[in-house]
Amino acid sequence: MLSGMKGYWYRFAALLLLLIAAWLLWSGIYTPLLLGLGALSCVLCLYLAHRIGFFVELFSARAILRLPRYWAWLLLEVVKSSLDVARIILNRKLPISPTVIEFDAAPDEPVGQVVLGNSITLSPGTVTLDVHNGRLRVHCLTREVADALLSGEFNRRAAELMKD
Fold first, then answer.
1. What distance, in Å, lies between the first and last C-alpha atoms of the chain?
2. Where are the domains of the chain?
C-alpha cells in the first residue's frame, strides 16, 4: 500500500513540476501577481485531475522520460504538415480531397487515446472529430494525409509514449 501511495505522490510531484515549467516557459511575464495566479492554476489543474480520477493513470515515470523525444518528433510533424498545408493553399488549383477516416487507437488507456487525438489535431490539415470506445474519427485535408495517418506512425508513437 505504501509503495502505491509513494508512487502516486511521485507522479503528483512530477506532474506539478511539469505544469509549473510549462506555465513559466509559456507565460514570459514574471510579476508576483501572475506567478501567484500561475501557481494557483497549476494546483487547480491537479486538484481537478485528481477529483475526476484522471491523475492516477496520467503519467508514469517512464512516460515522462519519453516525453521530450515525443515532443521533438511531434514538433517536426507539425512543421512538415504546416509546409504541406501552405503548399496546398498557394497552389492555384487548391488540390484538396477532404476525407474522414476512422481507425482503432493503439493506446488502450483513455489518456493515451487523448494524447493521440490531440497530437493529430495539432498537425495542420487534420482534426480529430471523435474518440469513442478506442476508435478515432479524423478529418484530413487530403487523401495523402489520411493515408499517412492510416499507416500508423502517430498511433505507434502515442502507444510507445504511454507504455509502462
1. 20
2. 2-51, 61-162
The per-residue DSSP string of 68-131 comes to HHHHHHHHHHHHHHHHHHHHHHHSTT-----EEEEEE-S--SHHHHHHHHHHHHHSTTEEEEEE
Of 5-14, 54-63, 119-128, 137-146, the one with minimum mean pLDDT is 54-63
User: Other CB atoms closer than 10 Å to residue 87's CB: what's the count?
Assistant: 10
pLDDT interval class at 1 (50, 70, 90)? very low
105 backbone dihedrals φ, ψ, rounded to 5°: -80, 135
pTM metric for this prediction: 0.71
CA distance 150 to 104: 10
Q: Give the HSE-up count for residue 66: Cα atoms under 13 Å, Cβ half-sphere.
A: 14
Cβ atoms within 10 Å of 95's Cβ, excluding its own: 11
3-state DSSP assignment of residue 135:
strand
CA 59 distance to own-chain centroid: 12
**128 backbone dihedrals φ, ψ, rounded to 5°:** -80, 120
Contact 38, 21 (CB under 8 A): no
